[in-house]
C-alpha cells in the first residue's frame, strides 16, 4: 500500500474520531425523575460544552436542548433570570438537588425492597446513594432503612445475631449470603451429604421465641424513631 493511501486513511480516521468523540461526552436528556444525578449530569454538560468550544452564553442558550418535561418547563419559565452561566448553574442545583430531591429520596427509601436476584452489596449501593440524596447521617436511621429493605432471610439473621450498627448488619447479611451460596452450590451436587445434615435442614427455620422478641423490640423502636427536623419516621416492614 502506498504512502499516499496510508496518509488518506489516517486523515479519514482522524476526521471520524473528531466527529464521533464529542458524541461520547454528550449528556442524555435531563428529566427531573430522580433517576439522573443532577450534579453528575451538570458536570457532563460542562465537559461536553468545553469539548465543543462553547462560551458561557452558548452554555446558557443551548442547555434547553438537553432538558425535557418538567426540567424544560422550569427553564422556559425562569429563562429571563439566567443572565450568566454561574447564575444558571446555581439555580439548576438549587432546583434539582435541593429539597425536592431530598423528599423524593426519602420516599424511595421507604419503598425500597431487595429484589429476588439482587445481592446484598447491590442493595447497599442503592441505599448509600439514597442516603446521600436524603442527607441521612444518623446511624440508627440507616440501620432501620437497611432492615426494612433487605430480604426477610437476612432480616431474621440480623435480628438473631443482635446487630447493633448499620455496618455490623451489612457484614452479617453478606456473611449469610455467602453461606447460602455455598450451601446451594453443594446441595445441587449428586450425593451431597448436606441434604441430610440437620444443621442445613434447619438453616432457615425461625427460632420463634428469640425472633418474635426482637421483632417486637424493633417495631417498638421504629414507632419512636423520629429524627429532628423534616426527616420522616422510618417505618419497618418485616417478612
Mind explaining what this structure looks like?
By secondary structure, the chain is mainly alpha-helical. Among the domains are: 38-97, no CATH class; 102-188, Non-ribosomal Peptide Synthetase Peptidyl Carrier Protein, Chain A. The chain has twelve helices and no strands. The protein has helices at residues 3-25, 38-51, 56-62, 69-78, 85-96, 99-111, 120-134, 139-149, 152-160, 166-187, 198-201, 208-223. The radius of gyration is 26 Å and the shape is elongated. The relative contact order is 0.07. Mean pLDDT is 78; it is low at 7-21, 206-211 and 225-233.
By CATH, the topology of the domain at 102-188 is Non-ribosomal Peptide Synthetase Peptidyl Carrier Protein, Chain A
CATH architecture of the domain at 102-188: Orthogonal Bundle
The helix content, as a percent range, equals 55-70%
Largest sheet: none
Number of strands: 0
- Summarize model confidence as the mean pLDDT: 78
Taking pLDDT < 50 over at least 5 consecutive residues as the criterion, the unreliable ranges are 7-21, 206-211, 225-233
Which CATH class of the domain at 102-188 is shown? Mainly Alpha
Anisotropy-based shape: elongated
Helix/strand class:
mainly alpha
Q: Whole-Å distance between the termini?
A: 71 Å
- Determine Rg (CA atoms, Å): 26 Å
Helix segment tally: 12
Strand content: under 5%
- Which sequence of SSEs, written as H and E, runs from N to C? HHHHHHHHHHHH
